[in-house]
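A favour, since you know our structure tokens better than I do. It will help me judge whether the discrete encoding reads sensibly. The space below this message is yours for that.
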Amino acid sequence: MPRVSREQTDKNRLLIEAASARLFKEHGFNGVSVADIMASAGLTHGGFYGHFESKDELAALACGKAFEESAARWKSFAKDGADEAAALDALAKHYLSAKQRDQPGAGCPANSLAADVGREDADKPVRGVYTRGLKALVAALTSYSNARQTKRLRKLALARLSMLIGAVTLARAVRGDPLSDEILEAAREHLGFGSE
């Protein structure tokens, strides 16, 4: 039986990581099996343990990668000299949208994984990874401001983060009812961003 090249092994690992991040965000950690992940990556179940020691290891890795992508996206809203209001407006239009609500697999792990991470034991690696990811989003929010970094600015960023995540989480829970769109619109308006 021919051996898989190192290059192909690395490509397979990336496929597994991408598939797991999407599936975990869509179905939760316990709603996805190793077989589901491998099938989604187009690989056989038996190859999983050649890449990862456990599903817990993969969950932490996938969570971290998903947060890296979200933090980079959040930082991109402040590019090109955008002031704080413009950066926050761009973030809100992106985050408090029907697309974010309806496509959890392509969205932010902060809202799609919150309940699952909260159910994990404190010693699970994904707990620390999730915490670091949230801190990266807070840092992205505080970076929008040119003001000196203060406790007040941090508290404002935490409140905004909570509203963004909470609004999408609730809107997702009642998707299909007009209340879902109302929640997203109310959050945009309350945060001072206006409606779409």
Notes: The domain at 6-190 is CATH 1.10.357.10 (Tetracycline Repressor; domain 2).
